Amino acid sequence: MKELFTPFRNWRVIVLAVLVMVAAVFILGECNDMGYLLFTKVIGSSLAYIIYRLGKYWNARGKINELMALAEE
What we know:
This protein has about 70 residues and is mainly α. It is about 80% helix and about 0% strand.
């Protein structure tokens, strides 16, 4: 059980998790106005792309090895 919490000791994993939650709120949220709806979807998709690039960058540098080890199990 303790090995499940080891990735959260790394601040980069916490940053990625918080950004994923924010992106999910923007992508899954709904509005009555079509302009706001498209705006929130674009913001959420852009944020998701930033998260992807940031995760890929940190993984290439070996900064989030704990998260990758957990993903392999």
